[in-house]
């Protein structure tokens, strides 16, 4: 049934919402269970990053449309929060199956708008799907606590209850996974949800919304608006919105954290990164070099967990030429082309920024061992391609080290000892992810204990936690105190009510008012 609906309403081939008869399709809003045309006069072009052709247009929703979306969430909250937890669980059980059945279609839409390879796009869907599968365990995850007999005839118990309307503001780099970190966790707890996808990759969210509706989610439980700053400000300011999940850059994340918090909302803000891979000389060389290259250049380096910085310790410094050879073997191509390893960057502006950061390294005295700036991709001459690039002799003060590059660029530093490497990692402002490559347990243990980073891998280059854990982050990579998904995600999207009750026999009735604090 979903396929039939999708075929008539959404192009499965491209993942776009195709209702318009104009040559460039337009993206709908999803308000109160309906996919509707925006009445806005302001539209943004969406480009295929491999060609830079305009493939769709996304509206900047009007104030009236955004208000209608929140009002819909507010109305739906009354019934959805009272819907039995077993009924909510059933919606998510159907939802996970629909996502599974349509993974390839979702992946196509991701590659078309975001640029990553099809295989990687399927991984994007799969990692989001895991969160939906985890949400299906809500009947255990939302259990409260009880403590009987805290005094005579008196028991205390807690409920975990939804907050109300919650909102998510998503980035461009994981069009499926990150929206799926957000609204399923919020909704399964009994909240209703307003999602603002990245204006650069909105189609995947629209497909996910359609599937959610087809899974039986009542109208108004999930609403989707599109836009940029005005939509973000609207979310930060609207009184009915109780919590905001944000993932994206520091510039936006710190702003949203501050503005949302000032308005009394819970905010969790996952932001930028500079992830270090520390290579010890005792590491398994073959494995380490392959892992490093995959994690630095996969998704064209546009992952918040990309290993964008290598620290070669001691004798591992001599591995550099082999690292370069492996990086050279990666194939740069449009994401839908067979054998593509590295797709395009999201925009020409992003490519220009990445290229200027590479240039800054050269100007500050680093060496460019592999330069992907002039890469040519046959048939895709207008795409935003940058080939794998390796910059060595980098020092911590250089701009290519202090700034998040977010492209297929690996900067390489050197250290004499493990302690020196730990000092560098902890001296960097970001604390998102890191990995150590070693065959020595004591080295691994020291590293995992001493680094101040949210996600640590030991011989695991991209240690994104499975959803029974939580995705964390420290220092400049995170604002807030409750993380995404896992137990912490449930805590973020619920509040606790504590009930203390006393049922006693009649002969124990108080004979006079109790005016002192009970002890
Ligand atoms: P971005 O900050 O440009 O956009 C994210 C969202 O914020 C979008 O919906 C956008 O419309 C909105 N936005 C953008 N600029 C804004 C501003 N000035 N004020 C208010 N709202 C604004 O991020 P992006 O380029 O889409 O994503 C890449 C960034 O996301 C990278 O820095 C990456 O490290 C980070 N990221 C972090 C994680 C994590 O879990 N830590 C995961 C994925 C991506």
From TrEMBL:
Q: Which PROSITE patterns does the entry link to?
A: ALDEHYDE_DEHYDR_CYS (PS00070)
Coiled coil ranges (UniProt) are: none
Q: Which Gene3D superfamilies match?
A: Aldehyde Dehydrogenase, Chain A, domain 1 (3.40.605.10), Aldehyde Dehydrogenase, Chain A, domain 2 (3.40.309.10)
- Catalytically driven reaction(s): 3-oxopropanoate + NAD(+) + CoA + H2O = hydrogencarbonate + acetyl-CoA + NADH + H(+); (R)-2-methyl-3-oxopropanoate + NAD(+) + CoA + H2O = propanoyl-CoA + hydrogencarbonate + NADH + H(+); 2-methyl-3-oxopropanoate + NAD(+) + CoA + H2O = propanoyl-CoA + hydrogencarbonate + NADH + H(+); (S)-2-methyl-3-oxopropanoate + NAD(+) + CoA + H2O = propanoyl-CoA + hydrogencarbonate + NADH + H(+)
- What are this entry's molecular-function GO terms? methylmalonate-semialdehyde dehydrogenase (acylating, NAD) activity
Keyword terms of this UniProt record: NAD, Oxidoreductase
Q: Which domain of life is it from?
A: Eukaryota
Every copy of the Aldehyde dehydrogenase domain together lies at 36-499
Which Enzyme Commission number(s) are on file for it? 1.2.1.27
Which of the seven top EC classes does this enzyme belong to?
oxidoreductase
CDD domains noted in UniProt: ALDH_F6_MMSDH (cd07085)
Q: Carries keyword Disulfide bond? A: no
Q: Name one GO biological process term.
A: thymine catabolic process
Q: Which GO terms describe its cellular component?
A: mitochondrion
| Similarity annotation | Belongs to the aldehyde dehydrogenase family.
* Function recorded in the entry: Malonate and methylmalonate semialdehyde dehydrogenase involved in the catabolism of valine, thymine, and compounds catabolized by way of beta-alanine, including uracil and cytidine.
NCBIfam families in the cross-refs = MMSDH (TIGR01722)
Protein name per UniProt: Methylmalonate-semialdehyde/malonate-semialdehyde dehydrogenase [acylating], mitochondrial
Q: Which organism is it from?
A: Knipowitschia caucasica (Caucasian dwarf goby)
Q: What is the lineage of its organism?
A: Eukaryota, Metazoa, Chordata, Craniata, Vertebrata
């Amino acid at each position: 049934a979903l396929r039939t609906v999708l075929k008539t309403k959404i192009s499965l081939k491209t993942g776009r919402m195709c209702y318009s008869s104009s040559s460039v399709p337009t993206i709908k809003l999803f308000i109160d269970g309906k996919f509707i045309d925006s009445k806005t006069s302001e539209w943004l072009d969406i480009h295929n990053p491999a060609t830079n052709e305009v493939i769709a247009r996304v509206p900047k929703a009007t104030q009236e449309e955004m208000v209608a979306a929140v009002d819909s969430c507010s109305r739906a909250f009354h019934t959805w929060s009272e819907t039995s937890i077993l009924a909510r669980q059933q919606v998510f059980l159907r939802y996970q199956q629909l996502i599974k059945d349509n993974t390839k279609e979702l992946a196509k839409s991701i590659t078309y708008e975001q640029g990553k390879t099809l295989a990687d796009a399927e991984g994007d869907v799969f990692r989001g799907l895991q969160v939906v599968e985890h949400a299906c365990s809500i009947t255990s995850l939302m259990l409260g606590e009880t403590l009987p007999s805290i005094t005579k005839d008196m028991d205390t118990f807690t409920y975990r209850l939804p907050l109300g309307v919650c909102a998510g503001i998503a980035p461009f780099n994981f069009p499926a996974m990150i929206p799926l970190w957000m609204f399923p966790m919020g909704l399964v707890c009994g909240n209703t949800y307003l999602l603002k996808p990245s204006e650069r990759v909105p189609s995947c969210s629209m497909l996910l919304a359609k599937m959610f509706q087809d899974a039986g989610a009542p109208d108004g439980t999930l609403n989707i608006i599109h836009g940029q700053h005005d939509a973000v400000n609207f979310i930060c300011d609207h009184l009915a919105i109780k919590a905001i999940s944000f993932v994206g850059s520091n510039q936006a994340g710190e702003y949203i954290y501050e503005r949302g918090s000032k308005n009394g909302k819970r905010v969790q803000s996952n932001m930028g990164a500079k992830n270090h891979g520390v290579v010890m000389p005792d590491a398994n060389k073959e494995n380490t070099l392959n892992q490093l290259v995959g994690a630095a250049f996969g998704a064209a380096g546009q992952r918040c967990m990309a290993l964008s910085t290598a620290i070669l310790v001691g004798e591992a410094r001599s591995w550099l030429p082999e690292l370069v050879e492996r990086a050279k073997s990666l194939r740069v191509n449009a994401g839908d082309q067979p054998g593509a390893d590295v797709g395009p960057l999201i925009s020409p502006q992003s490519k220009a920024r990445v290229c200027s950061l590479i240039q800054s390294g050269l100007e500050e005295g680093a060496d460019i061992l592999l330069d992907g700036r002039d890469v040519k991709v046959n048939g895709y001459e207008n795409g935003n391609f940058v080939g794998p690039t390796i910059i060595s002799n980098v020092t911590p003060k250089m701009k290519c080290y202090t700034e998040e590059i977010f492209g297929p660029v690996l900067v390489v530093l050197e250290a004499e000892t493990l302690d020196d490497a730990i000092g560098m990692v902890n001296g960097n402002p970001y604390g998102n992810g890191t990995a150590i490559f070693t065959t020595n347990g004591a080295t691994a243990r020291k590293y995992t204990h001493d680094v101040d980073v949210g996600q640590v891998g030991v011989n695991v280059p991209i240690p994104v936690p499975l959803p029974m854990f939580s995705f964390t982050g420290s220092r400049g990579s995170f604002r807030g105190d409750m993380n995404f998904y896992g137990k912490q995600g449930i805590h973020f999207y619920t509040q606790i009510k504590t009930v203390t009750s006393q049922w006693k026999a009649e002969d124990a009735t108080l004979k006079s008012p109790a005016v002192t604090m009970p002890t």
